[in-house]
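Hallway conversation turned thread

IA: we were arguing at lunch whether anyone had actually written out Acetyl-coenzyme A synthetase end to end. Turns out nobody had. So, for the record, here is the sequence (662 residues) and right after it the structure tokens. Reply here if something looks off.
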Amino acid sequence: MTVEEPKQNPTHALYKPNFRTERYPKNRTPWISSFEQYKAMHEQSINEPDVFWRLRASELVEFNTPFHTVCSGSLSEGNVKWFEGGKLNISYNCVDRWAEKTPDAVAIIYEADQPGGAKSVTYKELLDQVSRIAGVFKSFGLEKGDTVAIYMPMVPEAAATMLACTRLGLVHNVVFAGFSAHSLAERIRDSNSKVVVTSDQGLRGGKIIHNKKIVDEALLTCPSVTKVLVFERTGAEVPMQQGRDVSWSKALSEQNEFVPPVFVDSEDPMFIMYTSGSTGKPKGLLHTTAGYLVGVAMTARYSFDLSSGDVICSTADVGWITGHSYAVYGPLCLGVTTVIFESIPNYPDGSRLWKVVEDHKVTHLYTAPTAIRSLRRLGDEFVNCTDLSSLRVIASVGEPINPEAWVWYKSVVGKDLCPVVDTYWQTETGSHLITAIPFATTTKPGSATFPMFGIEPAILDPNTGEELTGPNVKGVLCIKKPWPSIARSILGDHDRYLTTYMHAYKGVYFTGDAAMRDEDGYYWINGRVDDVINVSGHRMSTAEIESAIIQNESVAESAVVGIEDEITGQSICAFVTLQAGLKESDQIKKSIIAKIRSEIGPIATPKNLVFVNELPKNRFGKILRRILRKIASGESDQLGDLSTVADPHSITELVARVHIML
Ligand code: PRX
């Protein structure tokens, strides 16, 4: 395995935090206000994990029955358990306790797709809604441990549905409502979901998404589903199947009894989240209850310096892990206000996201480098015409952020008065692994900086597995010790969990990312080392896209690679060879793209699709993606060692072909 040079070009610029000169309220001090404090807490979290986590758990989460053991099991055995013996309820922690304490505090601000359609939901109102949905679930006969698939737009009702699942100990499986019927069906079947919650339609950037229609199509192949609860988002007429489909407004209005929370065991399953891996089959990562909640609440508090009274806007959809951890569970467990943003940052124009900050006095903004880069390209005027003086912390997630975008975020959006917090983590990790602490860490643009509490990173030589200690080393990034919010398994395939994460390198968790640690100990994440592409922070497997492409009968072979893209971080480039005797045509190209969209969803559409006569292979017939990546990136002069290529002449033809096509 080779680890390429970091793309972020480490700079020597240093940004020292100082909450007294930044926009910090006079009557408060940050949770962590110095690097020494961060270091002391980090050391304790590694050297005395029991003490550290017992304290965090008791500060952040209410257990109905106290736990007896903080942590047991090991990474290598893949049997980690946290807070055993404890009983708790997630919706109680995120809703009831605030509804009792501060009933009129705002839990959710809903910023609808069309500007001007905002509304607020207080904790008291949220509790009422969560209880009603839980009542509907009970009427469907759902019981603790059953799974509910959620295919919803980014509306407060989606968050309330997730919370209603946790209220009864049901496992939720949120599928991003941009995935195709085929992908949705695959996820419903794999998770054995009994109920689907969806909406008549969705709205995103002014476009209508036909959610119910997609669900209907998916359910043709999902016999396990007995009920579909349909939230009326637009009120459009949609076909309702008698006996199966239930109107949200009607069903909720019929609920008149309060549904109390069901206290579950710390290690009871909480949710499944599908993500892409190196093979064609998405992985259903299983997260459990107490560890996940403590992990997200702890990181939300310290990585963002969040406290009650704050307003966080995490632009990620609830269909992704960021939406789960930092739009719903982290903020609500801390009793703060979360903005659920249904639209996209540039709809109807480039000032939309900034208007959201201004209108709702957002204190914490959490978005992806792709959004930052594309909004930057639209020009500073879109930012400068809005009042962003409420912002205190601005954060980034999902992909490496290039220093230019980082500096723009810091100076133009944050007016050099807000720390930039680049948070590195994964669906598998549940919460932040490497991140700056806003008022403690001196930051370097493009570096995620230092490990979060409880995280002990190691950089390993990718080939020998040996740990590379000291400064200025690069290799694969692994984590040495378990942390509470790590996914416990891949649903139905614990062996895959073990081989992918726990046994790739001995005794450690393998992230799948390359990283560099510089002379000051800062971590720089350098992207995936497996066949996973990250487009706009969305993870996709090359194998999954290839298997959609070769379903087209004209196609003989295909190879998909990710190449660098100025805005989206990476973009998808597909190389395709056709069956003998067939000539490439626009029609074939269109039908291949249509197949990808229907198999996976529009997010997997390749930016480039190139027909070639032959794919470069080694003598054993393995496709040499490294070469394709170089050629597609315009680096045909840096192809390196070609001695393993079975037919070196094919490369010359390929280079000429790609040169014309791209
Ligand atoms: O490659 C890393 C990249 O996104 C991957 C995880 O993707 P996903 O599970 O979809 O979760 C995304 C949101 C947490 C990682 O393996 N990644 C995520 N955050 C960063 C990042 N790469 C660099 N810097 C980050 N801050």
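OS: looked through it. The chain has 19 helices and 31 strands.
IA: good, adding that to the notes. Residues 358 and 387 are 5 Å apart (CA to CA).
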